[in-house]
Amino acid sequence: MDMNKEVEKKFELKINVLTHYGNGKCACVICGFDDLRALSIDHIEGGGNEHRRKVGRQIYLWLREQDYPEGYQTLCMNCQFIKRYKNDIPLLKLRKAKTLSKRIEAWVEGRNMQFSIWDLRVGLNLAPSEAKGLRVYLHKMKNKGLLTGYGNGVFKKRVKPVSVFGVNSSMSYKPKS
Known about the structure:
three-stranded antiparallel β-sheet
């Protein structure tokens, strides 16, 4: 087969599949962008990378051979990336928050004197954008009784008192007169 005819057939297949999943138009179903160079098939529920590993690189051929199954749509690359960004950001923030809170707690645990939010930021090597929630997190630790706040963003780790009179530290020594 002539190379030009093979490329032409693949091009025609792509147009047909994108048109089917573009609701009758060879265009992005979200924004209407119609430049074929930037259009692709989107797995509506995600999992596209794993699916492509299973079926190979010929997703357009596979979709036609499966008689155009549901669960796919035509999107431009901008809308694909926006969709991925929107889906990944909450998970990314959650992962980052968990690791940052552990880092904060470990840093505070190693301090026996007063420290400021600035000290914490520098100690954890955080960029200004990463340090935005430090004050809130430190106040949460204060509310839990883990820190003492001195105002103006200055805190100190609260040390649990140790009783020399036994387990119950509420008992105090009162000499008999």
